[in-house]
Amino acid sequence: MLTDIEGVRLGHVTDKQSMTGCTVVVFDTPTVAGVDVRGANPSTKDTDLLRPTSVMPEVHAILLTGGSSFGLEAASGVARHLESIGRGFDVKVARIPIVPAAVIYDLSIGSSSIRPDVQMGVEACMAAKSGPFERGRVGAGTGATVGKLFGIGGASPGGLGTATVSLPGGVKVSAVVVVNAFGDVVCPSSNRILAGTRDNLGNFVNTYECQKRGSVGLSAFDFKNTTIGVVCTNAVLTKENANRVATVAQNGIARVIRPSHTDVDGDAIFAAGPIDGELHCSISLLGTAASEAVELAILDAVGDGDHSEALGRGDQ
Fold first, then answer.
1. Which of 65, 133, 233, 276 is least surrounded by CB atoms within 10 angstroms?
2. Using one digit for the tens of pLDDT, what is the confidence trace for 109-121?
3. Where do the domains of the chain lie?
């Protein structure tokens, strides 16, 4: 899991009643990050600071959150807590924590008026720990859904998953991913749908094949979907390399979510690693491992859920 990487902590806040929450990844050592935003409908914060042309040298945390754009408020809570413990970019008169963030849309599940806020961000940061953490419908994955060709009532539960890929020399690449996709999650070896759109009888339908036949549901142009995640490694990265790893990591989404990177998704993957250290690895290998970690994390996100039936109209 993501916390297999030394110096990386993760914390959730989960509101099961309102079906929303947030997840924060906190870095205890100097860390550089990059991002690849592949979906056409993203909602993010501070991603421009991660571009190679930005002079910002490091990040202090990354937030994944529900609540659509409203949920970005939780990033202020993360920053507030980090400032209170002396973390942040030193501008002499204050320390400014750099907390990039990305959101999923979960307002159609549970309460649309309750979203992650400043207090949730503080609590998630305070809950951040190394070691095992909850997966499935927790944190930012609480209200996640998968397969929305026919609307939210025909969707399957999504969630949050994690995975680690080990490389030679002690190098590790880990990912945490929140799966809230328009398309179906598919087993890459068998092409079996694991989570996705269901018809009125509760049977899986193939979203892409339905689109090819012209069976497009009413929600096909609703901007209510996204898959977001964070990839971390213990190998030294530059900002340029972090952005490259994030770009290649998106291949993991394409392998198991079909269709992916659509104009109704906001798919975004962050990649982070230490600025200094003893471990080094080729960026080509890191990127390939990152895409595998993302793929496995997506499968993990839906693997623990009950997908025996669609969410149903009562969950809208």
1. 276
2. 989 999 999 999 9
3. 2-304
Over residues 187-198, the pLDDT tens digits come to 999 999 999 999
Mean pLDDT of 199-222: 78
Please determine, looking at this structure, whether the domain spanning 2-304 carries the CATH number 3.60.70.12: yes
Q: Are 1 and 96 in contact (CB under 8 A)?
A: no
3-state DSSP helix/strand/coil % of the chain, to nearest 5: 30, 30, 40
Supply the DSSP symbol for 291: H
3-state SS class at 200: coil
Instruction: Please give the single-letter amino acid code of residue 175.
Output: A
DSSP one-letter string for 143-176: T-EE--TT-GGGPEE-EEEEEEEE-GGG-EEEEE
SS3 118: helix
Reduced to 3 states (helix: H, G, I; strand: E, B; else coil), residue 65 is strand
- Residues of the chain with pLDDT > 70, as a percent, come to 93
Q: Are 262 and 39 in contact (CB under 8 A)?
A: yes
The span from the CA of 19 to the CA of 179, in Å, is: 15
Helices (H), the chain: 74-84, 118-127, 207-213, 239-256, 283-303
Q: Are residues 257 and 186 in contact, defined by beta-carbon separation less than 8 angstroms? A: yes
Would the pLDDT of 83 be above 50? yes
Distance CA 238, CA 151 (A): 42
The structure's pTM equals: 0.93
Q: Binning pLDDT at 50, 70 and 90, where does residue 264 land?
A: confident
Query: CB 91: neighbour CB atoms within 10 A?
Result: 8
Residue 297 C-beta-side C-alpha neighbours within 13 Å: 37
Q: Mean of the pLDDT values across residues 134-152?
A: 94
